[in-house]
TrEMBL record:
Top-level taxon: Bacteria
Family under the similarity heading: Belongs to the universal stress protein A family.
A family per Pfam: Usp
Identification of the protein by name: Universal stress protein
InterPro entries: Rossmann-like_a/b/a_fold, Universal_stress_UspA, UspA
Start and end residues of each UspA domain: 4-146
Species annotation: Gordonia iterans
């Protein structure tokens, strides 16, 4: 049984982030609203090929809303399979940390769930990572799910 009324979880479509979505779905169950978010940077399409070549798996951040819609569809399926009853999805423009923190405020979330990807990497230590940054800045409880 959860004391949380609204749970937000972020996903980028990776298997590790979908593991965090499943965990959030199990936590929210039939007692909480679950909001699944996917941050993206809008793109007019001209840079899509270059982004894929340069960013590889991280190209989702600049591809626009079409990939985001598919990511959110898969995430919603995963959350429902884990037990979430009420699931809302949001494609949010902007950087992941800023987008998640704004969404937490907008929906008055009690819990923010993220995966731990990047938390213990060199880049994460030097540049910051989504889980570390949201844990420091969020105005609600944060659950960092061990996904890697």
């Amino acid at each position: 049984m959860s004391d949380y009324k609204t749970v937000v979880v972020g996903t980028d479509g990776s298997e590790s982030s979908l593991h965090a979505v499943a965990r959030a779905g199990g936590i929210s169950g039939d007692k909480s609203n679950l909001v699944i978010a996917c941050a993206y940077f809008p793109n007019d399409g001209k840079l899509a090929s270059a982004a894929t070549d340069t960013l590889g798996a991280d190209a989702y951040q600049v591809m626009g809303s079409s990939p985001t819609e598919e990511i959110l569809r898969k995430a919603k399926e995963r959350a429902k399979a884990a037990g979430a009853a009420v699931v809302d999805t949001r494609a949010v423009k902007g950087a992941p940390v800023d987008a998640l923190l704004q969404l937490v405020t907008d929906v008055q979330a009690d819990l923010l769930v993220v995966g731990n990807k990047g938390l213990n990497s060199i880049a994460g230590r030097l540049l910051g990572s989504v889980p570390a940054d949201v844990a420091r800045k969020a105005a609600c409880d944060v659950l960092i799910v061990h996904t890697t």
